[in-house]
Amino acid sequence: MMDDEPSGPQNRSWLERLANVFSSAPKSKKDFTDLLNSARENNIIDHDALEIIEGALNVCDKQVREIMIPRSQMAVIPRHLELNDTLKLVIESRHSRYPVLDETADHIVGILLAKELLPLLLENQDGFNIKNIIRPAAIVPESKRLNVLLKEFREQRYHMAIVVDEYGGIAGLITIEDILEEIVGEIQDETDDAEKEMIIPRDEMGYFIHALTPIEDFNEYFNVNMNADELDTVGGVIVQAFGRMPKVGENIDIDIFKFRISEGNDRQVKLLEMQVMPNKITS
Question: Where are the domain boundaries for CATH 3.30.465.10 in the chain?
Fold first, then answer.
């Protein structure tokens, strides 16, 4: 004789748990986010896993214009440069890929992979023609969603795209690494210089400041005493001053400095444009 299905408290408890799973199924993105936070609080997933999942969700809602490198900060190579000048530019900027511009500087003629220059060092440099080694440039609109572009990067096996505005002009560029960093956070590889310049002068009163610049280094460089409380970096001071995560393009004045968010996302500030305000300098 077959045993009857158990109907004691243990079985009812199992059925209740099963019912709760289905009844609590998320109906919206917010519900799903709340479910993830609950999983984190109950140690089902750790903090890193939560951030990666949230990053992947955010990528679906973002457009290229929100994280692209603007044209003013693009490292480009003019088509007419000779090999030695091209190599100097590559060594100075230390990227692996470069947009190549025509003589008008308004049109992208292709993408140069730095590694393609290495065999040329053993050949006759007089015959150097950059058009022979550049690759076609992928063009994407500012409005393209990041998750769609990431899929194209993977399927078509390219790593950089030129971003154009509604009029077809060059607005900036974006790489597959930029999108992945939105998901997993900042990525550094063996070619990144741990001692890179964190404070880069633009003109007499203007600078680019990496958000990870230690406050001590900032204060020493500018001979100031910015009060950081328990914060360690300039980026932390900026976020604290805003009281929230600022958006790219927003400005804020702190002491004698005017900061503008140049690069960042909804989780971190990456690069700042800073201007010293002479009218606030006192002797």
Answer: 199-280
What span, in angstroms and rounded, lies between the C-alpha atoms of 185 and 196?
A: 19
- Distance between start and end Cα atoms, the chain: 99
C-alpha span between 101 and 146 (Å, rounded)? 25
- DSSP secondary structure string for all residues of 169-220: -EEEEEEHHHHHHHHH-----TTS-TT--SEEE-SSSEEEEETT-BHHHHHH
- For residue 26, the surrounding DSSP H or E stretch is none
Quick: pLDDT tens for 179-238: 998 888 776 554 454 445 889 988 778 899 999 898 989 999 999 888 766 778 899 899
Phi, psi of 167, deg, nearest 5: -100, 0
pLDDT at 228: 63
CATH of domain 199-280: 3.30.465.10
For domain 66-184, give the fold.
CBS-domain (3.10.580)
DSSP character string of 115-137: GGGGGGGGS-GGG--GGGT-BPP
Residue 141 pairs in a beta bridge with 164
pLDDT for residue 129 is more than 60? yes
pTM of structure? 0.59
